[in-house]
Amino acid sequence: GADHQSKDGRQWCDSCLTLAVLDQAAAQKMFDQVRQDIKQHLNVFTGDTIAFHMVDADSLALLLGHKNFAERGLYRYDIKYKVIKKTVNKVTRKLKKVERELFDIFILSGLSPENFRDVAAHELAHDLNYWFFPKVMGKREVEGFAEYVSAMMNQYWGQAKVNENKIRNQQKEYSEAYKYFMKLGEKGGLKAVWEYMERQNQKAKIKK
User: Fold this and answer.
1) pTM for the whole thing?
2) What's phi and psi for 117, nearest 5 deg?
């Protein structure tokens, strides 16, 4: 049974609470390790400086704009541009130059170590999406890709059981996106998924 309740209404049993990731420093260490593991195992990385924050359910709900216990993380980027004027052959053009980039990942506190790693990998996959496929913004592609990357990492960490929850996800758009990407990667693995995302990115560019 549930023996411990937090201020945000979540409950843990004794053994769950013992394992729960609640310490910010320990969580930061795990987050950094997940990022390192993705780089080594999948050979993909972005050089972004990502600020990691562990938050309770109420804080996460404020960031998301709604409360949903199925949501366990958030990737957020904030780009500030500066408009500069450049004159070439008496023709003045306005150019947008990146002045500042801020990247944040928020993860729900109190997750089991397995679920923490899964969520961290999912949110870090959004960062890969932003850099390598910036024009891909459809929900199925964005969430499917993130679920696929985190599923691959779960297998690598020996916690493939976590992937069963992806199929059972009550948020149907997530489970359907995951199934779609698992089918894409059935034969060619990450390479096939990556090529699919590149094609989607290319298509989006053509539309513009």
Assistant:
1) 0.87
2) -60, -40
